[in-house]
Amino acid sequence: QQQVKQSPQSLIVQKGGISIINCAYENTAFDYFPWYQQFPGKGPALLIAIRPDVSEKKEGRFTISFNKSAKQFSLHIMDSQPGDSATYFCAASYSGAGSYQLTFGKGTKLSVIP
Amino acid sequence: EPEVTQTPSHQVTQMGQEVILRCVPISNHLYFYWYRQILGQKVEFLVSFYNNEISEKSEIFDDQFSVERPDGSNFTLKIRSTKLEDSAMYFCASSALAYEQYFGPGTRLTVT
Questions:
Q1: First and final CA of chain A: distance in angstroms?
Q2: Do A106 and B42 make contact, defined as CB atoms within 8 angstroms?
Q3: A94 — contact with chain B (CB < 8 Å)?
Q4: What residues in B contact A98, CB-CB < 8 Å?
């Protein structure tokens, strides 16, 4: 019930295209859903996050779509660039235990080809 | 822009030895975390720390692990007797308002 399932495992997109990564969760207590971007040898960097009271959040080329009834959320990267090539992790958190620990998906390796 | 820093960047140790991984969280942050990432796998929660005590720990965080905030700025993870399976990237994270966690660059621990 603590799992966050992420797909696809890898994704190849042409420059200028739209990258879409999907995540699903089971625990309805989750109330915070961030996406992290990780480059090789670096720590995860917070990219964008959403709360379940909104269905969409946009920051620049990055958009989170959230479907509370389906317990799914997705990251859309518009006008994908080679510099976006990285591993993307979705995550979920809740405040019930007082620690806000993040439960991560397994990651999606995105390659944007010129 | 403030950052979480971690030292060392790479630690090589022999099985059975003790290691201490160090982190300096962002200065006004109140919540501190350790996560680990085995090569090619997802990031896993180890422990959270708030108000000078552990607030939650995972099943990975057994008696071989301990955390400390010795001086109000550093946050350390100690592994008492390392095992081969402890080889991983260890990330420290901190947050001001619980939810937005900022990660450090990590310490690569190699146990031989």
A1: 40
A2: yes
A3: no
A4: 50, 55-56
Closest of A83, A60, A63 to residue A13, by C-alpha: A83
pLDDT tens digit string along B41-100?
889 999 999 989 999 999 999 999 999 998 878 999 999 999 999 999 999 999 987 688
Residues of A with CB below 8 A from B60's CB? none
Mean pLDDT across B19-28: 95
What is d(CA B42, CA A90) in angstroms, rounded to the nearest whole number? Answer: 10
> Are B77 and B7 in contact, with CB atoms under 8 Å apart?
no
pLDDT at A98 over 70: no
**Burial of residue B100, with CB atoms counted within 10 A of its CB: 0-12 exposed, 13-18 middle, 19 or more buried:** middle
User: Per the CB < 8 Å rule, is B35 touching A103?
Assistant: no
Look at residue B33 in the predicted model and tell me its pLDDT: 96
